[in-house]
Amino acid sequence: MLSFISSANPWLVGVGLNTVLLSLVWFAPKKLLTPAGVFHAWLLGILIWGTLGWQGYLVVAFYFIVGSGVTRIGMAQKEALGIAEKRSGARGPENVWGSALTAALCALGIGVLNAKLFPLTQSLVPSPQSLLLLGYVASFSTKLSDTCASEVGKAYGKSTFLITTLQPVPKGTEGAVSLEGTFAGVVGSAAIAIVGWGVGLISPLGIVWCLLAALIATNIESVIGATLQSKYTWLTNEIVNILNTLIGAIAAILFALIWANSFG
After folding, report:
1. Closest Cα to residue 183, out of 219, 226, 148?
2. Taking the complete model, does pTM exceed 0.85, yes or no?
C-alpha cells in the first residue's frame, strides 16, 4: 500500500486522500470546519500533499488536530465571558488561510524549485528547498504557539497582562499575555517542530530556530494586537495571523542563514 502511494501521482493521491478525510470531518458531530472551510482545507491539503508529500501533510494535520483541540479547551467558560472563538471554534476559509497562507507559499516555492521551472533561482541561495522547508515548519510552529498561548491563557491564565505596559487586563484582551499561556505556546511550538524533524523536513537545529522564531513572532503579534489592531479595521485577526506566521518563517530562515554563515 505504501509503495503504491509513493509511486502514484502525488496530486491525485492528495485529491483522493483529502476527499476521504474531509468527508469524515464534514459528517463529524463536532464541527471543526464550516462548509466553506472544508472546501478551502481540501484545496490546502492537495497543495501540501502535491508539493511536500505525506511528510508536509502530517505537519499541517498535526496543527489542525491540536489547534482545534486546544481551541475547545474551556469553551463553555470562554463563551460565557464572550472571549471564545466564533462558531464555537469551527474554522472558515479566513481561518484556514490566516493560519496556513505562509506555509502554502513555502510549499508552492518548493514545488516550483523541484520542478526546475526557474533553475537559476537555486544558485542564488544555498539549499533554498531546505530553507523553505524550515519556513514551512516554522510558520505552523508559530501559529500553534499563538493558538496554544491564546486559548490556554484565556482558559487557565490566572493573571493576564498587556504586553506593552505589563498592566493587568481582562482575559481575551488583544495583546494580553499570561504565564500559563506563554508556557503552553512554547510547548505547542516545540511539539510541531519535533514533528517536522521527525518526518525529516528540518534538522535538529531547525527545532531551535522554530522555537526562537515562534517566541519572537508570537510576542510581536501581541504587540500588534495591543497597539495597532484596534486602530485599523483592516487589521483583522486573520491578517494578524498571516503577519505572525510570516514573521515566524522569516525569522527561522534568517537564524539558519546567520548560523550557516557564521559556523557552517
Report:
1. 148
2. yes
